[in-house]
């Protein structure tokens, strides 16, 4: 094949190749351009050929749009190097204003060993590639900016669970550097604090099984930042034509968990201090704390006669309640009782402090136990049982357990003291409310009802007793307060009135003497209201003194009702108070009704039963006896309040015997 034929073939090939080809002479003038060059620059080759290299029919800049210095022109780079210069990237602005990106390969040509005769340029359009790279960069920058602004630590793992990258929050939170983190297995980070079998299993299933997990809790004593509780969430990241990655988000919930347990303890405290019955206390404790601790069972043992008696439980059959156990049978309680401190066993199958065979027999995998200490004696035990798997107990849970046990111990002790006091007060109150079976010359009925069982001991009282000369004395009163103090005060007031009444004298004088006695004995601020009367059963004359008490009501045999509104000061405020006696007349069948303010102040929502409703009810009764009237009134009050009382009620009704 001749030289001419070879050149023709090469020229034909250059004419059909997809890349633009331009040839420059030794002065840099364009002397040739193929058809692809015409298409690339959108000008004819006649507009290219003859142009100098520094003034082509297009505008060349750097990729970033900056002017290209003369020394950096491809032609000049080849001359300087005296050899090929590959991959020169430029931006080209065509005459029609469109902009493209190109990659130029430039090489010199000439006779072997002779001078350079010119430079040949092969130019490839890389616009789509550049735009794709820019879009990818923009997307990456956008994603990275979002990741960097997220406050929670984030790390990206490859399929082998090595760290590809992490955000700034991760480095700041765990006080580590990039060098200590990137390209490291997650299990190797931070003294292997993430080397958790369950976490490992979850992560290893994400890519092959397309799994994900949320809110996986990790509690650990980290080398630098201390004891922390972290919440982990992981997702698979799918990438086109590239291996998938794993995004792992980490949230520090230590403070939130502490606040959650503190809030739960406040609710439990409120519940157990709102009642005084031990049964109610323990039922509330085991229900709320079991839910909070996430355990399977809760046991409450009380130490009775050298046995641990299961008194309360959650997650056990009812027939288990009341069973007795020796120390050997319940080693959980024994362990905590010995130390008098809370005990946590995260894995009962491996912990040497417990009988592991016994733990396996009962299926107890982990447990928490805390002694209930009263007067420095272990009186009971709280135990929380986990059956499924080992549990890592952190300081937050142990602190919760210790505070819970302390609160429960105090509440149980208070409840027991209350029971003792209530028994004493009940006995005292019952003695104060004892009434004679009959009194000469009168018929009478009486009734006492406490607002609640807990507030059974109140300050309401009544009494009736005979005096000389066919006279009957009676009193009804109300002392501020509850409990033993109120019952004691009642005894003093009632005894004082009765003693002074037996000395003879007017009701006003008797109340005045009682007032002087009460002021000296009762605590400041303890006041007494009382209605004291003396009824002459022969004449029907009623002499009375109302010391600040609700007005008495007389139901006449005619059906009319009278309210005795005259009154004197209450008892116990000041010494030397002047009291006044008043007089009324009772006929046969007339009924005198005495009551405490628990009747008129009984409520339905915000509405009081009131004096007017009481008077109307008494007036509407057609045939009624003194014996039956108190119960009828109580029935009406309870119906009005739908069975709820806010204060104690005492009622006393008296009438002259009809024969």
Structure description:
It is a single chain. By secondary structure, this protein is an alpha+beta fold. The protein has a 6-stranded antiparallel β-sheet, sandwiched between helices. Strands 14-13-12-17-16-15 form a 6-stranded antiparallel β-sheet, sandwiched between helices. Strand 10 (226-239) and strand 11 form a beta hairpin.
Concise description?
The chain is α+β, with helices and mostly antiparallel strands and 659 residues long. It is built from 18 helices and 29 strands.
Helix content: 25-40%
The assigned structural class equals alpha+beta
User: Low-confidence runs (pLDDT<50, min 5 residues)?
Assistant: none
Q: Could you tell me how far the N terminus lies from the C terminus, measured between alpha carbons in angstroms?
A: 161 Å
The major pleated sheet works out as: 6 strands, antiparallel
Beta percentage is 25-35%
* Dominant shape: elongated
Strand order in the sheet with the most strands: 2-1-6-5-4-3
Report Rg. Answer: 50 Å
Average residue pLDDT = 85
Count the helices. How many? 18
Count of DSSP E strands? 29
Q: Topology of this structure?
A:
Elements lengths: L2 H14 L3 E6 L4 E4 L1 H7 L3 H4 L10 E3 L12 H8 L3 E9 L5 E11 L8 E8 L1 H23 L4 E4 L5 E4 L1 H7 L22 H8 L1 H4 L3 E10 L3 E14 L2 E11 L1 H20 L4 H16 L3 E8 L2 E8 L9 E2 L5 H9 L3 E3 L10 H7 L3 E9 L2 E10 L8 H38 L9 E8 L10 E8 L3 E9 L3 H20 L4 H15 L6 E9 L4 E7 L4 E4 L5 E4 L17 E4 L5 E5 L1 H4 L2 E2 L2 E2 L1 H11 L8 H13 L7 E8 L3
Antiparallel strand pairs: 1-2, 1-6, 3-4, 4-5, 5-6, 7-8, 7-11, 9-10, 10-11, 12-13, 12-17, 13-14, 15-16, 16-17, 18-29, 19-20, 20-21, 21-22, 22-25, 23-24, 23-26, 26-29, 27-28
Helix pairs in contact: 9-10, 9-13, 10-13, 13-14, 14-15
């Amino acid at each position: 094949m001749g030289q001419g034929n070879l050149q023709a073939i090469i020229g034909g090939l250059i004419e059909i190749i997809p890349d633009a080809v331009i040839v420059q002479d030794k002065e840099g003038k364009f002397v040739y351009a193929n058809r692809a060059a015409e298409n690339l620059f959108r000008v004819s080759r006649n507009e290219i050929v003859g142009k100098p290299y520094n003034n082509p029919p297009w505008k060349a800049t750097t990729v970033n749009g900056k002017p290209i210095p003369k020394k950096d022109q491809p032609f000049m780079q080849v001359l300087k190097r005296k050899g090929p210069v590959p991959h020169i990237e430029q931006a080209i602005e065509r005459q029609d204003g469109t902009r493209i990106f190109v990659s130029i390969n430039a090489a010199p040509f000439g006779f072997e060993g002779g001078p350079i005769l010119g430079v040949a340029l092969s130019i490839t359009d890389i616009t789509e590639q550049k735009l794709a790279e820019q879009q990818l960069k923009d997307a990456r920058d956008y994603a990275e900016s979002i990741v960097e602004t997220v406050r929670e630590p984030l790390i990206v793992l490859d399929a082998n669970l090595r760290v590809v990258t992490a955000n700034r929050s991760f480095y700041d939170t765990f006080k580590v550097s990039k060098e200590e983190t990137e390209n490291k297995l997650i299990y190797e980070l931070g003294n292997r604090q993430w080397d958790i079998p369950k976490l490992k299993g979850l992560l290893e299933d994400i890519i092959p099984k397309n799994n994900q997990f949320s809110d996986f809790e990790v509690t650990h004593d980290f080398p630098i930042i201390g004891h922390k509780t972290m919440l982990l969430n992981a997702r698979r990241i799918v990438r086109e034509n590239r291996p998938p990655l794993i995004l792992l988000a980490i949230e520090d919930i230590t403070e939130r968990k502490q606040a959650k347990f503190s809030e739960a303890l406040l609710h439990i405290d409120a519940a157990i201090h709102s009642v005084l019955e031990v049964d109610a206390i323990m039922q509330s404790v085991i229900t709320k704390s079991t839910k909070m601790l996430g355990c399977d069972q809760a046991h409450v043992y009380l130490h009775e006669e050298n046995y641990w008696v299961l008194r309360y439980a959650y997650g056990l059959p009812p027939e288990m309640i009341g069973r007795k156990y020796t120390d050997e049978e319940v080693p959980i309680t024994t362990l905590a009782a010995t130390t008098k401190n809370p005990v946590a066993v995260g894995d009962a199958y491996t912990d040497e402090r417990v009988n592991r065979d016994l733990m396996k027999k009962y299926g107890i995998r982990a447990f928490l136990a805390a002694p209930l200490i009263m007067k420095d004696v272990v009186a009971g035990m709280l135990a929380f049982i986990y059956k499924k798997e080992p549990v890592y107990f952190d300081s937050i849970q142990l602190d919760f357990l210790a505070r819970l046990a302390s609160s429960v111990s105090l509440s149980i002790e208070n409840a027991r003291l209350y029971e003792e006091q209530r028994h004493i007060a009940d006995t005292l109150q019952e003695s104060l409310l004892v009434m004679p079976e009959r009194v000469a010359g009168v018929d009478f009925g009486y009734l006492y009802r406490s607002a609640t069982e807990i507030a059974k001991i109140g300050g309401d009282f009544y009494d009736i007793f005979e005096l000389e000369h066919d006279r009957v004395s009676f009193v009804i009163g109300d002392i501020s307060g509850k409990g033993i103090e109120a019952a004691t005060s009642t005894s003093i007031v009632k005894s004082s009135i009765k003693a002074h009444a037996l000395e003879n004298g007017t009701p006003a004088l008797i109340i005045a003497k009682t007032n002087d006695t009460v002021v000296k004995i009762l605590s400041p601020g303890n006041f007494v209201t009382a209605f004291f009367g003396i009824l002459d059963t022969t004449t029907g004359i009623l002499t009375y003194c109302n010391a600040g008490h609700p007005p008495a009501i007389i139901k006449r045999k005619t059906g009319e009702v009278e309210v005795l509104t005259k009154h004197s000061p209450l008892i116990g405020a000041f010494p030397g108070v002047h009291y006044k006696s008043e007089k009324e007349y009772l006929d046969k069948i007339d009924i005198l009704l005495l009551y405490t303010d628990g009747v008129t102040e009984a409520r339905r929502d915000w509405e009081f039963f009131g004096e007017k409703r009481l008077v109307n009810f008494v007036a509407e009764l057609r045939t009624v006896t003194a014996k039956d009237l108190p119960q009828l009134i109580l029935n009406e009050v309870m119906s009005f309040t739908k069975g709820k009382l806010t204060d104690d009620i005492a009622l006393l009704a008296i009438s002259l015997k009809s024969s």
